[in-house]
Amino acid sequence: MKYLTFAQNLHDLNLIKDQGMTEVILGHRDFSRFGKLDDENYLALATRAHELGIKVTFEWDILMTENVFASTSKKINEFLETMDSLRVQDPGAFEWSLKHTDKPLQFIAENGNHNLLGLKGWIDYAGPRMERIVLSIELSKNVIAEYIKELLVPCEILGFGRILLFYTPRNLLSPLTSEKVALNQELVALGESEESPHKGFPIVENTHGTFMFHIKEFCLLEYRDDLIKMGLDTFRIDLRWEGLSYLSDLNNLKENYPKDLMRGFYLVNKTDVLFPKLKNSRLQKREGDYVGEILEAEKGQHLAIMVKNPKGLKKSNRLKIIHPKGEVFEVQIHWLKNTALEEVESVEMHKLALIPFINGVWVKSHVFYLDNEIDK
Known about the structure:
With 376 residues, the chain is an alpha/beta fold. It has helices at 10-18, 39-51, 66-75, 91-100, 116-126, 141-150, 224-230, 253-256, 275-278, and strands at residues 2-7, 23-26, 55-60, 85-88, 105-108, 130-134, 155-161, 164-168, 187-192, 199-206, 209-213, 217-219, 234-237, 261-262, 290-298, 302-307, 313-314, 318-322, 328-332, 346-347, 352-356, 366-369.
């Protein structure tokens, strides 16, 4: 597994060389979302990188309108001879690069296709020109391992860096300042939520729009051995915000880094944790012995059952109540009331029936007749 990072000045290139890295990403401000290099500085860094024996990967990761695409696709021709690989995210840039260049392509699929079939489609379309594909940090450990095994090109993943939460091409910060914003000026701020106590979200506005990041940064440094065993080709480290000096001690980077860190969905993807509860097999039975559902549990007073069986509920019935977690209660009704709190002998279908409270029974518990009670 090799390490990959970004260089923003000549000093960064020296640090990269000292760490034994063989590839660098250079971000020109017209093509890269967070690139700060102008024409002169980009050419100087590309030249120096080649002198140091470091491969130059040109980052073209902005999402573009038709007008922006027309200008950037024309200008990029000026830099083709200086780059060894071309790194793209916009499908239009991907298509243009295939047709108008002969450069090996690195496709950024972090914010697009997360499914295996979609990723294979991009790889098949590019053919031998696909040098590497960048996977999303939203994938869990097991899924990453599966994708690395199934995909026929080297895979890359962010191992350390900021987590992008939100992007818009609109300028959201500059209207809030009374000062005139210069061309290519970058504005930074910290945001907070009106609906929650969370605050400190880094926000960046530049010529490409406005970006908001997670309060915590992403870190998989402690799982490098796992990723090596999976066969991961490239582990990307993004230190553009705090400085590349932390690169000199990767083993202690996590301890020395000034920001809070998180591993995201790497160990387990919890986005579907509620599905088993929403589709609880214990609560799916709707056969002939089904009486109804507990809609209210008033401690010390009553349970309210919405009766859904045409036979209704009788005071003489014996009941089985199944808790959503699977616990079963067998009940003999001592009294039965309607919603007017009058004691009755039976309650019809589509009406609420009140029975004595039973400790441990919750709302959403389901009620059934015990064996042979349905015909009484």
